[in-house]
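hey can u check if this looks right to u? its 112 residues, i copy pasted from the old doc so theres a chance i mangled smth
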Amino acid sequence: MNDGVIRATQTFELDQHHETIHDNPNELIEAGFPGKFLLPLMEVFESSESYRYFRHGQIVNEMIGIRHSALIYAIARHLGVPSSTASGFTGRGFAVRATIEAIRKVLDERSR
């Protein structure tokens, strides 16, 4: 298991809005997440007539980033949190919250 993911998870602020898009993946690398861990999570977000993406207060046509929820789920998989942890929730925010709590529990148990 990559210790970089565990160390980064212990210091990174997990409690962010589940719809957050980390539009500068280098900030996640600086937080300690290995680039190889983050690369598969990257997406291109394209604005449309019905939905606009903003970066630094400006509408952008497209941007590259990582969904906070995707990062949380990837951390959970990496730590061995059962995928069924959030299956009982219908809202994405509640599912992410349950997954964050499970991540914290695993980290707590490992630190003992």
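The beta strands are 21-22, 43-46, 53-55, 58-60, 62-67.
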